Amino acid sequence: MRLAPLVGAAVGLAAGAVLLIALVVGIPSLVAGVLGVGTLALLTRGLHLDGLADTADGLGCYGDPSRALAVMKSSDVGAFGVVTLLLVGVAQVACLTAVTEQRAVLPILLLPAVGAATGRAAITWACRAGVASARPTGLGALVAGTLSPVAVGVTTLVVVIGAALATALGGPTVLRGPLAVAAGLVVAWALVRHCVRRFGGITGDVLGAACEVATTAALVVLVIEPWSLSVPLTR
């Protein structure tokens, strides 16, 4: 779990390479964005997306924690899961499309890596000491509470420094990387906190959901255009 952000960075670089190849061969930016998100899903076999859908269904159902956990364990995907997958998928495609439209090598390669590394850093945070497992078995039980505050802090610091270097080299600014990491971790922290209160702890699905929402939030921050005080108003 301490090395999860490193794996994320590698997956993000692979997605960035796909974006770059798509740009070189003349594939439109929107299609390139779809291919980039598809690469992220393919390299993880859709594991985190499955967790996102299951977590959304669990949070959307009525009943006690045991009922919610049973819904999450079911192989069916409900309406909450489908809508959440669509929204997150569209958001990620839009972000990678915006990255591709910059038509610069370093942003195309490095910005997806920052987003994916942030998503995996959210998994590291979710495994910190004091976070319980919702089930006695499964991935959540295996990793919940296994990382000390020092381990989580060191991993986070490495991710923040790496993100700062990536956005210093690939744009937009050195501060954008740390801001993206912070946004991703805050959103994931809020989700995990809610899941712990709703389910009684984390599960493997919750880890996947935290990864996807953190990745998405980080990518959104990375592609925000510089603010302008001049806003044209039309009727």
Q: How do the helices and strands line up, and which of them pair or pack?
A:
Layout (H helix, E strand, L loop, with lengths): L3 H21 L4 H15 L3 H14 L4 H9 L5 H23 L3 H22 L12 H5 L5 H22 L5 H24 L4 H19 L13
Subcellular location: Cell membrane
Keywords: Cell membrane, Cobalamin biosynthesis, Magnesium, Membrane, Transferase, Transmembrane, Transmembrane helix
Pfam families: CobS
Structure described in brief:
The protein has helices spanning 4-24, 29-43, 47-60, 65-73, 79-101, 105-126, 139-143, 149-170, 176-199, 204-222.
Average residue pLDDT: 92
- Major beta sheet, specifics? none
Order of helices and strands: HHHHHHHHHH
How many discrete structural domains?
1
Helical fraction equals over 70%
- Please identify the structural class as seen in this structure: mainly alpha
Low-pLDDT stretches = none
Rg over CA atoms, rounded to whole Å, is 18 Å
Task: Give the CA-based shape.
Answer: globular
- Count of runs of 4 or more consecutive helical residues: 10
DSSP strand tally: 0
Question: Distance between the terminal alpha carbons, to the nearest Å?
Answer: 53 Å
The percentage of residues in β strands lies in: under 5%
